[in-house]
Fold LAMI_0H17062g1_1.
Amino acid sequence: MILDEKDAEISMIQKSFGHQNANCKTWIRRLLILTLIIVLGFWNIASRICGLSRLLDGSNPIETAFLKSLETNLAGNWLEKYTAVPHLAGQGQELVNWTAQKFEEYGLKTEIEAFDIYLNYPLDNSLKLLSKQKNGTKLEFQASLKEDVLAEDPTTDGDDLVPAFHGYSASGNVTGEYVYVNYGTKDDFKLLSEVGVSVEGKIAIARYGGIFRGLKVKFAQEAGAIGVILYSDPGDDYFQEAKGDKAYPEGPARNPSSLQRGSVQFLSQSPGDPTTPGKASQGNVTREDPSSRIPKIPSLPVSFKDVKPILEKLNGYGLDCSKFGGEKWIGNLPGFNYWTGPNPDFSINLYNNQSYDIRPIYNVYGNLTGTDPEEGYIIIGNHRDAWIKGGASDPNSGSASMLEIIRAFHELSVQGWKPRRTIIFASWDGEEYALLGSTEFGEKYSKTLSAQCLAYLNVDVSVSGKNLEIQASPFLNHVLAEALTQVEYPLGGTLYDHYFEKKKKFGILGSGSDYTVFLEHLGIASVDVGFTNGRTDPVYHYHSNYDSYHWMSTMADPGFKFHNALAQYLGLVALKLTEPKVIPTKISDYATELGFYFNSLAEKVPEGWLKAPVGKGSLLDAIIKTKERLIKFDRNAVSFDEYTSTLQLEWDNRDLLPIWKRLRLAFQIKGVNYKLRFFERNFVFEEGLKDRPWFKHIVYAAGRDTGYEGFALPGLKEALDDDDLASFIEWVERIRGLARHLEHSFS
Ligand SMILES: *[C@@H]1O[C@H](CO)[C@@H](O)[C@H](O)[C@H]1NC(C)=O
Ligand SMILES: *[C@@H]1O[C@H](CO)[C@@H](O)[C@H](O)[C@H]1NC(C)=O
Ligand SMILES: *[C@@H]1O[C@H](CO)[C@@H](O)[C@H](O)[C@H]1NC(C)=O
Ligand SMILES: *[C@@H]1O[C@H](CO)[C@@H](O)[C@H](O)[C@H]1NC(C)=O
Ligand SMILES: *[C@@H]1O[C@H](CO)[C@@H](O)[C@H](O)[C@H]1NC(C)=O
Ligand SMILES: *[C@@H]1O[C@H](CO)[C@@H](O)[C@H](O)[C@H]1NC(C)=O
């Protein structure tokens, strides 16, 4: 790192942050530093015991300078730009160029990369309710499949609006009787079959919620349905017109015409181009039949206004859902009494015409090169594509926050600062269809990512409400918690206070955004952050025309304070990961979580399984031995964490050390950093999970039957769900092997 000697302020910043060697020649100075070491050492111990690390707030000059740059807030400007024109996957070239231009303007080494993806654009659709007549059928009602144009919300109007459709839905023209299937989960279809309601040959109508929408279509298809309609039930909203709340744009309730677009790809099989799992979709890549990853039956999203006349016809037909399903089956759509149907007098005609082709999508990358190339890099990513012209929450609130981080880093850079580790920013395309841009990137660069990438930080929706959510690999817990203490929550207190007021720990990553390939395919520690929509927030019109700049700027985040807080937070996390000499993690956090996950699943093992033979003993013995191994690993991890903290402390005060000790220290740090950079890779199991080999992480995966929601130790969890003892034993043995390996690696 080369410094301008004249720039005293930056020089001071750099020195205190440990980028520069200086010789101390006087004893007085040595004495001062010795005192400092003792004080810092004491502080370090004290902070661990009583969480006093917060006393150190703002003491880091780079972090302080970064936060100062964000006292200016331009998030609203960026958001307005991103939400003014359509930018469906592969479209919105103007925004690709603009993003690349901004990256360059803010000093990043920038590149645009295209992938060639098999995907659909909508051509035509219709949804008709037909009544049976003696001499044929009569059209009773035709759904508009359009959202109301609102004068005050400009991006709800124009001839460039994105139609109602599902990404990766099948074309088709089907007519049949229809049934209500609640959320369309695996359990919902199971219950319907138990009570004798058949979906075979019918059109299934499911409400959104609970699980990823593509799996609703998958389960309906498996149950023999010929088509699917998905609608947003107002009963799932906190604010409702039925409860006296006004609807958007007058108030916080759902606009009755809003409808949720979205992908119906089978996310939990594998994300990415469905014709090239595990491979980058470029040039001549060999493609395979995608039919196990996308639906064969057509589907359409509709508003509750459009589905009401259709569902009302089921009242009194089939079974009363409250009788067999209870409250869980009842929404709050006025006029519908939640009967399953079918009503033999009515049918629907669902017509869905999609154009499929291989089409280019565009990622934009920007590098902020670090001072120490051997130390690898981190990636911060956000997707750019949206289902609608707006996309103010999803995803462009995240795009605006990310651009603010880039702007603030640029302000540090012009003063001569560089991070120690390289920071790569990524603006992904095609996330909405199937995490396309990030997955293809991860598949293409898997080797160098495995070798060099320390962490992936994701921000998809940075603001849809006021409720901070953090889901992460425990490898990052330490920095994530520390940064929380340094950012103010826009409504008072710190983010730390806000987050831990309601939650005990960080969440588990499942799927549904771009971290998936990094964590679950490549074993790279990842985090996803954003302010989500909670009970006190106006209804978030997810994937609807009303997720607009107007909604965001008047209702969700006037003044863009939450966008700003997110930029502060994620930027600090990036600095904390890239600046320190020793990689700042506490692997004991991971060890503790592993023990917790294993013990909670072990408790669920059926009595009858425990005596099953495993090796020379029983399953019970194997479980006990695995627990012991995990406890020993935890103990070793605590000592290892103490060792790495000591190394960092010695490094911060290395001026005190004779040259040969300094060299030895540098060598020791290289060793631990190497180990830490690859720590998360320990969990990669090359053969992958049962029946879905793309998912290779032993500890975290997208829920097989939920898509979004993640589950820890999926091998064990699924074996329990499937009542599969042999598979359970196999996974216990695998985890025992892993625990033994970890215990030894960190002894
Ligand atoms: C984007 O940039 C490319 C390359 O400079 C150019 O060919 C293209 O016309 C630009 N597109 C738009 C919409 O600005
Ligand atoms: C960014 O950094 C990565 C990792 O070092 C490198 O592979 C890539 O080529 C760089 N991109 C640019 C545009 O410099
Ligand atoms: C069916 O009968 C009704 C009157 O009973 C008539 O209005 C209608 O046109 C007929 N439809 C067809 C398809 O013949
Ligand atoms: C859909 O199929 C019906 C017959 O089942 C036919 O009358 C109608 O024209 C078809 N619609 C389209 C758009 O092809
Ligand atoms: C595609 O395949 C052809 C013939 O096999 C080969 O010449 C060409 O280099 C390939 N292109 C790419 C981009 O791999
Ligand atoms: C879908 O639309 C295309 C283009 O308008 C048309 O050629 C095709 O026949 C349509 N498919 C169906 C099933 O109606």
About this structure: The pocket of 2-acetamido-2-deoxy-beta-D-glucopyranose (ligand 6) is lined by residues 123-124, 171, 173, 353 (CB under 6 Å).
